[in-house]
Amino acid sequence: MRLCFGAGLAVWFLSAAGLFAGGSGLNVVVVVNQNSTNSIQLGNYYCEKRGVPPQNLLRIQWAGGNIIWNRSNFETNLLNPLVAMLASRGLTNQVDYIVLSMDIPFQVTASNGVNSTTAALFYGFKTNDCPACQWPGCTLPDYTSNSYAASEGIFRQTPPIAAGSNSWLVTMLTSSNLTQAQAIIDRGVASDGTAPTQTVWLAKSSDRLRNIRYWEFDNTILDVRVNGRLSIIRTNYDSPYGLNNLLGFQNGLYQFAMLTNEFVPGAMADSLTSYAGLIFGNNDQTTLLVFLGAGACGSYGTVVEPCAYLQKFPSPQDYFYQARGFSLAECYYQSVLNPYQGLIVGEPLAAPFARPAAGAWVNLPANSVLSGTTNLTVQFQAAISQQPLQQVDLFVDGTYAQTLTNIAPGQSNTLYVTINGFQTNYAIPAGASLKSIASNLVVCLNDPGYTNLTRVWAAAFGDRIGLQSFDLTRLGTNTTLQTSNSPGDAATLTTFIQPARSNFLDKVTLGMRSYLITNSAGTVPAGNYLQCTLVKTNGSVVTVAITNGTDGAAFNTFCQSFLNAINTNAAMQSADGILIDEINMHEDEPYRTYVYGPDDHSGEFNIYVQSPGWPAAQAQVAISGSPAFIILDAGTNRLDENVSDLQPRNHLYLTAGVTNLDFTFPLDTTMLADGSHELTAVAYEGSHVRTQARATQNVRIRNTPLNATFTTLAGASNAVLNFTLLFSIAANTNPIATIELFTTGGSVGVVSNSSSATFAVAATNLGVGLHPFCAVVTRNDGKQYRTETKWIRLGGSEPPFGLTLTALPPVIGWPATAGRLYEVMSAPNLKGTFQLRGSITPSNSPGLWTDTVTSAPQQFYRVRAP
């Protein structure tokens, strides 16, 4: 047994209030443009569907279009109000996600660059200082890199820029119409925790300039298959047109079409092309909205010509992050290294592979009366034992109040890892985090004395350790991995390590090597030749050669003939043969004219072995030819340039916490206003995924005689949009300093130095949707009372309703929408013609109409909302 101890650790501690990830509506700010009814209605819809607290909605005033704003307008109208709002409402350490709701510009322009709005808000506007460039967007400045990318970290602990800087996971919710935008939300909500079994397709298109992400496909496919939770394949499709039930699709193509409903809820899909992020305005390329219209929950595209930098587009690893349980926004921002030109549109919280815990308050009935300091108990149970619960936070009325418990990795807990029968262990030091444990355990696993035995190397990715075997003589199926966990000298075991599988995964990827052939003249003299020699893994040798018989033959034509000869040779087509693919002759049109220019006489291609796996990649190839050709890679080479994708692979996952978390804590109710409150306990899964689970209960606080009545004078549970709501609040004592009314977006009015107040609220300012209303009464000595919350739904269609009848005289009643016109009709029998008898516009509910004419022996009544 080898021993490894943590020593000399430098640990950076964050405040407990900052430890949010995974995400829920509690961690979201929704931004609406008050000049757009669609923006307001969509924002309200998102708040309702995701349980976003009313104080987490920001109203901005933007009178311009929905395409472009300059940097000054972006900062004045969005960034600065957002920062001020978070500070004034005490949300700075609570909010990780920003949702931009429809009719907000997606492109930020300046004299020294163009960014997307989502990226500029994510990590600040990034300049692109290359005024002399033909395509100014075609640079990749170092300062545009995103430190959160590929981290598999907790967002707050792994910021994309300097710690303490403003940064949020930002997405836009929009579409060509409101209904389609709402459907994106519905699909995101519907996807949560469903663990879909449908397949993600990674597609290498026929477009040479845009299919370049195929270089990254195999790495993701291996990681996903090791993880074992998501189905994923690679294909050569140009378009997903006609496919259905896709969990994801990633391609690179200039233009294509899609049908509706091709994706299942939770899907992410995008295309690597220049202008997929130009979602409105002139654009002949397929935009990301096409994927969303086909049923995806999220998509990505650049808003200015980016050039073909892989770093500016989502890596296929976003599907691996999704399979781990990360939210859609976390997946995208972890998968793009330089996102400054990229727009993300979608439902940020969608997490189809999340595994939320179950939880509830114990012995706390609804509207329980609490006073003084009282002990409360909350109980959570992890969804599976491999994902324990680490932290519980308390939110009061939707705002973070305190961390109730945070179970750190246990000092002296010991983790045991056994690879190929050789064991090492790691004792947890004081103050360790999952990230520091992973990093230090990797040091142990990579110690030369240990790797000489295991023939396996390790790398840390947040709370995950990736393992790869470098033993060519041992198949992955024969490379074993076991783990165990011990409390060590600690009283309890709260730190765990688990393998993804009991042996390593291999035989997925084809070995390959890239080649470049150049001919300076562009023509091939007669008698010149090109030759390919393959030494198969069994030692046999196959040679294919062609010689130019016509003086002055075009280089690209001759080279293509050579590659075709290899691919059509029978000996090369066998299981131990090779295949030429990804051929890119620079003289081919339109690439010669638009990309490479007339003086570039070269061509690139890749050589693959015909069978997957690392042993098969030991075949050797030599490309040679006449002096007229420059060939790279020169000499004889194994087809294992992609060795990291060939070596057998496995994962180790670290977690902290307990499976069953029963927690009792004292609540000092004197620190809260008297009256009605919503207590929400949030439990977090003990990995970097940090999936949340909520337990919510309404209670009443009573510590002083202060009280107030809250009455709806005009309004009901439903009201029309052009109606003015009236509310009355009356305190039971004097002197009163203020009475303030709150609803979606914050305060809507305050009255000072009066024990009663009446508030008029124009429904049009709030927009269609479900809105809460409550008031806070403050006494001169600072004591407060918070009224109950009244919920009113504004606008929308009238649902069917029933009538009540009392006599005499007959009084007709129904659940009315305040402010809506109703017509009362009657007939002496059901087969008769109903005649209009009267109309009424109720100011609250129920609607009531009295029939003062009762001469008929019987009457049948109908009420309609015209």
* Tally of structural domains: 6
Low-pLDDT stretches are 1-21
Shape: globular
Main sheet attributes: strand count, strand direction, barrel closure: 11 strands, mixed
* Number of strand segments: 54
Contiguous helical run count: 14
| Radius of gyration, in angstroms, nearest whole number | 33 Å
Helix/strand/pairing category: alpha+beta
Helicity level:
10-25%
Task: Please report the distance between the alpha carbons of the first and last residues.
Answer: 82 Å
Strand content: 35-45%
What is the mean pLDDT?
Answer: 93
Question: What is the topology?
Answer:
Blueprint: E1 2-5, E2 28-33, H1 37-50, E3 57-60, E4 68-70, H2 71-88, E5 97-101, E6 107-110, E7 113-116, H3 117-123, E8 169-173, H4 178-191, E9 199-203, H5 214-227, E10 231-235, E11 246-251, E12 263-271, H6 288-293, E13 298-302, H7 317-324, H8 328-335, E14 342-346, E15 358-362, E16 368-370, E17 373-381, E18 389-396, E19 399-406, E20 414-419, E21 422-427, H9 434-445, H10 448-454, E22 456-461, E23 464-469, E24 481-486, E25 495-499, E26 510-518, E27 523-524, E28 529-535, E29 541-547, E30 553-554, H11 555-568, E31 578-585, H12 591-596, E32 602-612, E33 620-625, E34 630-632, E35 636-638, H13 643-646, E36 649-656, E37 660-668, E38 674-685, E39 692-701, E40 708-714, E41 718-719, E42 724-731, E43 736-743, E44 746-752, E45 756-762, H14 763-766, E46 769-779, E47 784-786, E48 790-794, E49 804-806, E50 811-814, E51 822-827, E52 835-840, E53 847-850, E54 860-864
Parallel strand pairs: 1-21, 2-3, 2-5, 4-6, 5-8, 9-10, 9-11, 11-12, 16-39, 38-47, 41-48
Antiparallel strand pairs: 6-7, 13-14, 15-17, 17-37, 18-19, 18-38, 20-21, 20-24, 22-23, 23-36, 25-36, 26-32, 26-34, 27-30, 28-29, 28-33, 31-32, 33-35, 38-39, 40-42, 42-45, 43-44, 43-46, 46-47, 46-48, 49-50, 50-53, 51-52, 51-54
